[in-house]
Each structure stands twice: as C-alpha cells, then as structure tokens.
C-alpha cells in the first residue's frame, strides 16, 4: 500500500511538472522586445552594471521580479 501511494505521488508530480513546463515554455519568447523596443536589453544591462555594485540587495529584488513575472504570465 505504501509503495502504491508513493508511485501515485510520483506520477502526479511528474504530470504536474510536464504540464508546468509545457505552459511556461509556450509563453516565453527569446528577444521578446526586439520589435517594440530594440534597445531594451542593452538599457537593462547598463542599468544593472551601473547600480548593482552600489546596491547589492538590488540583485535579489531584480531576480525575484524576473521569476514573478515569468511565473505569473
């Protein structure tokens, strides 16, 4: 009975992972802003290079924002 329960949990986790990966992959696009704002990536890169050394905690906030935006979309 314990083995059956473990296998069921594993199957459910694998299914959830596949659904999540499929949904997240379908919504993300490399070079997303190229058409509407071609300089977006270089602007962000320069901002990060300039401000992270002065405010190291900003790196964590930017990373958290990135993951939040990716998961919410």
Task: Using brief descriptors, characterize the structure shown.
single chain, 73 residues, mainly alpha, elongated, metal-binding, Peroxidases_AS, Haem_peroxidase_sf, Peroxidase_pln, calcium
| Helix count, DSSP H or I runs of 4 or more residues | 3
User: Could you tell me the number of beta strands?
Assistant: 0
Radius of gyration: 19 Å
How is the biggest beta sheet arranged? none
Tell me the overall shape: elongated
Give, in order, the helices and strands: HHH
> Are there runs of 5+ residues with pLDDT below 50, and where?
none
Strand content bin: under 5%
Level of helix content? over 70%
Derived structural class: mainly alpha
Overall tally of structural domains? 2
| Terminal Cα span | 39 Å
**Can you give the mean pLDDT?**
77
Task: Write structural notes for this entry.
By secondary structure, the chain is mainly α. The protein folds into two domains: 1-29; 31-73, no CATH class. Helix content is 74%, strand content 0%. It contains three helices and no strands. The longest helix has 26 residues, at 2-27. The protein is elongated, with a radius of gyration of 19 Å. The mean pLDDT is 77. Its cofactor is heme b; Ca(2+). The record marks 64 as: Transition state stabilizer. Residues 1-26 form the signal peptide.
């Amino acid at each position: 009975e314990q083995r059956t329960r473990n296998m069921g949990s594993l199957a459910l986790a694998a299914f959830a992972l596949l659904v999540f990966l499929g949904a997240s992959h379908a919504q993300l696009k490399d070079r997303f802003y190229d058409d509407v704002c071609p300089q977006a990536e270089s602007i962000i890169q320069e901002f990060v290079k300039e401000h992270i050394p002065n405010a190291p905690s900003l790196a964590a906030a930017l990373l958290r924002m990135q993951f939040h935006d990716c998961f919410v979309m």
